[in-house]
Amino acid sequence: MIKVSNLTKKYGSNLAVDNISFEIEKGKIYGFLGPNGAGKSTTMNIITGCLAQTEGTVIIDGHDVFDEPTAAKKLIGYLPELPPLYTDMSPKEYLTFVAEAKGIKASEIGPEVERVMERTAITGVASRLIRNLSKGYRQRVGIAMSLLGDPEIIILDEPTVGLDPRQIIEIRELIKTLGEDHTVILSSHILSEIQEVCEQVIIISHGRVVANDTIENICLMGNQHPVLHIVAKCTPDAAVAIVDEYEEVTHYAITECSEGTELELTLMPGTDITDRLFFEFAGAGIAIRYLSNRVSLEEIYLKLTEAAFEDETQGVAEITDISSDNETEEEEYKPMFREAEEEEDENDSDL
Amino acid sequence: MTAIYKRELRSYFGGMIAYIVIALMLAFVGFVSAIFNFFGGIAFFEYVFAEGYVIMAMIIAISLLTMRSFADEKKEKTDQLLYSLPLKMSSIVMGKYLAMLTVYLIPMLIMCLYPLVLSLFGNINFLQTYSSVFAQILLGAALISIGMFLSSLTETQVIAAVMTIGTFLAVYFMPTIAATFFPETAKASFICFIFLIGVVALIVYALTKNLYAAFGTAIVLELANLLIYLFKADIYAGAFPDMLDKISLFNRFGEFVNGSFDLTAVIYYLSVIGVFVFLTVQSLEKKRYS
After folding, report:
1. CB neighbours of A300 closer than 8 A, spacing ≥ 6?
2. Contacts of residue B10 in chain A, CB cutoff 8 Å?
3. Is A70 part of the contact surface with chain B (CB cutoff 8 Å)?
4. Residues 62..91 of B with a Cβ closer than 8 Å to A: which?
5. Chain B contact for A116 (CB, 8 A cutoff)
6. Which residues contact A251 (CB under 8 A, 6 or more apart)?
7. DSSP calls for A91-117
8. Which of these three, A179, A196, A220, is where a domain ends?
9. Distance (Å, rounded) from C-alpha A105 to C-alpha A99?
10. CA distance B94 to chain A (A)
C-alpha cells in the first residue's frame, strides 16, 4: 500500500529522517512510535506530500507522492499534529469545504459530511463555530476531515494528545473501528495507546527505524529474559525468603514501597513461575497486590530507543539485540540489583 | 479552486475585512468625488482616481485585504491542510487571488454608477471615464497580487500589512524620488544598476537558497551592465529614472486618466499579476523544501 524507500530529510544540516525504509500493508493499524523529535511527524508529512524529502521515494498504491501528488493525496486522509481547522467556520461548513476541495461530487457532499460527522459523533455541534469548541471536539472535527471521501489510508499524527481520559478512550475505539476497513497509521509517544490499538509497530528513534514488527513479536524480543513484576504486602526479607527458593530466578531487584515490597524478577529463558509464586505467597499468608508477567512495550521501547541513542553508528540488527545490553543498563539505575547466586550471604546486611 | 474561492469569500464576508475594504474605497472616492465633481463642478470622474487621498485609501484597503491571505494560514497551521489536499498549488493560489479580486470589484462596480449620476448634470465622456475605471481595476488587481506574494513570505498579518503598505508607498513615490535625486547621467544609472543587480541577486538567494544561482545571476547581470556602460553609454543617460518611471504601477494609470487607452499598460498590469501569482506559488512550494 505504502512503500517508503531510503527516505532522508535534512533541515539545513540537521538530519531529521535518516535513510528509512518500510512498507505499510493494506488493512492494518500501524503504530508509529518514537520519542519527541524522533522524526515521526516529519515522516508523516513527507508521506502525505506536505513536505518534500531530501532523498528517497514514497510510493502510495503505485503513485509516487512527488511525481503524481494529486493521485497519491486522493488516497490519503491526513490529520496533522495540530488539527488544521478554520476556526471561523462551523464543523459542517468546514467539512463541506474540505469535501469540495477533495473533489467529492456535489450531490454526494451532503451525505458524506453527515456520515463522517456521525462516525466521529460531532453532529451535535455541527453548527457551532469551531473557535468555540473544546479541544476534544476540535480533534474529532480533524478526524472527521481525514475520513472525508473514504480514503483507503488514514494517517493520524498524535490524535489523542491533549484530550481527557474519556475522550482518549472514545478516540481509540474510533480508531479501532476505522482499522476494520482502512489502513491506519497512528503516531504516538504513548505506549499503552499503541499497544492497545495497533497490530504492527514501527519504532523510530533519531530518524531511524529501530524496530518494525507485530506487537507480539516485539514483546517476544523481551521474552528472551522473562520478567515478573510483583507487589506483595510484606517486608522485603519475607519476600526474598520466598523468591530465593526458585532457581529459575536469575536476577532480582527489590524496593520497598507504600504497599509493601516491589519485586522485579528476571527469569531463565523459557520459564514461567507466575502461578507457583502466587500460591507460594498466598500459602505464606502474604497478600499479592500486583502480579504481572507481561513484558510491556514500554521496556522494549526504552531499550531500543536508548540503544539507538547510545550508539548512533550501529545498525538496526545490533540494536535489536536487547539481551546483551540489558544487564548493563539495569545496573545503572537499579542499585538493589544483584546476582541471585551471591544473594544468600549478603542480602540481610543489604536490606 | 472553486472550493478555496468560496471559502475565502465566506471568510472575508464572515469577518470585518471585506466590509472595511469596501467602505474605505467607497467613502474616499465618494468624498473626493463630491468635492471635485459636485462642489467643484468638474465633469471628469476619472480625475478622482488620480487624487492622492484616493490612492492612499486604495493602498491601505488592499493591504488590509491581502495581509491575511497566506500569513494567517501559516500561523493557524491550516497550510498543512492545503498542502495535503489533492489540489495543485496554483489552483489554491488562484482561488485565493480571485476571492480577493471579487471583494475589490464590489466597490469598483458600485463606482461605475457615479458617472451615470454625474451625467444628469453635465456632459460626460463615458469612454474615457470607464476606461479609467477599467485601469483602476487592473491597478488594484496588480497590487493585490503583490500583496498576496508579500503575505506568503511571513507568518504574521501585521508584518504582512506593514510590508505591503511600505512596498506600495515605495512604488508610488519611486518616480518622484528618481526624478528628484538621481542625476540624468550614464554614470549615475550605471552605479544604480550595480546596486539594483545586487538586490536582484539577494532575492534570487532568498528564493532558492542557492549561492551559485545568486552569484551566477549577479555576475552575468553585472557583466552586461558593465558592457552596456562601456560601449553604449548614451542609452544609459537617464535610464535609471526612466526605468523607475516605466515600472511604476501608479504612473501607468495616469495615461488612462489623461484619455489614452494604453494597451502596453494593460499588458504590463497583466504581466505583473502573472509574475506575482507565479512567485506566490513558488514561495509556497519552497516551504515544502525548507
Report:
1. A211, A218, A219, A221, A222, A322
2. 89, 93
3. yes
4. 76-81, 83-88
5. no
6. A265, A266, A327, A330, A337, A338, A339, A340
7. HHHHHHHHHHHTT--HHHHHHHHHHHH
8. A220
9. 9
10. 14
As for the ipTM of the complex, it is 0.84
Residue B51 falls inside a structural domain: yes
Q: pLDDT tens, B80-136?
A: 999 999 999 999 999 999 999 999 999 999 999 988 988 888 888 888 889 999 999
- Full-model pTM: 0.81
Nearest-CA distance from A100 to chain B in Å?
6
Which residue in chain B is spatially nearest to A101 when comparing CA positions?
B3
Domain range for residue A198? Answer: 2-220
Give yes or no: residues A107 and A234 share one domain: no
A202 and A263 inside one domain: no
Residue A314, phi-psi category: left (phi > 0), alpha (psi -120 to 50), beta (remainder) = beta
Provide block-wise average pLDDT over 10 residues at a time, chain A (351 residues).
Answer: 89 86 90 85 90 90 89 92 91 94 92 92 92 89 92 91 82 88 88 85 87 80 74 86 83 84 82 84 87 73 69 45 41 39 42 40
Residue A315 domain flag: no
Same domain, B80 and B220: no
Q: What distance in Å separates the CA atoms of residue A350 and residue A128, rounded to the nearest whole number? A: 64
